[in-house]
């Protein structure tokens, strides 16, 4: 992965392309019970966390992903008090959730303890919420935890890696069924939704599956330089009928760098190739 001082990301889900970042210093390299873990200090993106060879987060651009994954679903609920994050061991989504003054309880359910520990050590700007008394951590399978907490959470956010390895089950129907059961009557969910330039063949069936479980479903996207093709999507679902592209609330949220009510709405306006592909009866190929 590191050759001549450069880290090269070559993922199974984006063949024929690579992302390269110059490495200044390797801070940690090891293997957890689930995946390879690499942390390094880069020349231009600050500290970088890599799992199984795939970039998960960097100091420079993490805010665009964390803010949109959090504030889009949180602002579609009038009073989110109990929030569950599945995955997201770096702590960034938890950090953003805690900016909402309605929040009373946040549970982070992460299967890999090493991701949390490495983030606390090397990414303290993301992992700063772990000491908040409203936050608890469960090291276990997210779907199993949700089955133990039916009709409990107002918002559930799945901050997952790509659907290979330990995150594969987070893109399958039983997992989304568990989310629907664990949400309260007006609950909202957000799930990492892959890249429209590469993964329409994953995005479309996932949306169709969610439409069977939730009355309101939408796909939004975020710009982020270090994710494949510079874009990542999010699947937004609500257990009540509403327009997910329009925030229900205008809560004052401090220290935002990316999210705004206007960006919230604009994120659901898809380029024509993507909009048409998601409306087709047959699942499209991964190419636009």
Automatic annotation (TrEMBL):
Domain of life the protein comes from: Eukaryota
Residue stretches making up the PABS domain: 4-239
SUPFAM superfamilies documented for this protein: S-adenosyl-L-methionine-dependent methyltransferases (SSF53335)
GO cellular component: cytosol
Enzyme active site: 159
InterPro entries: PABS, PABS_CS, SAM-dependent_MTases_sf, Spermi_synthase, Spermidine_synt_N, Spermidine_synt_N_sf
Molecular functions (GO terms): spermidine synthase activity
Membrane-crossing residue ranges in chain numbering: none
UniProt KW keywords: Polyamine biosynthesis, Transferase
One Gene Ontology biological process: spermidine biosynthetic process
Coiled-coil boundaries: none
Family affiliation: Belongs to the spermidine/spermine synthase family.
NCBIfam families membership: PRK00811.1, speE
Entries under HAMAP family matching the protein: Spermidine_synth
Name the UniProt record assigns to this protein: PABS domain-containing protein
Organism expressing this protein natively: Rhodosorus marinus
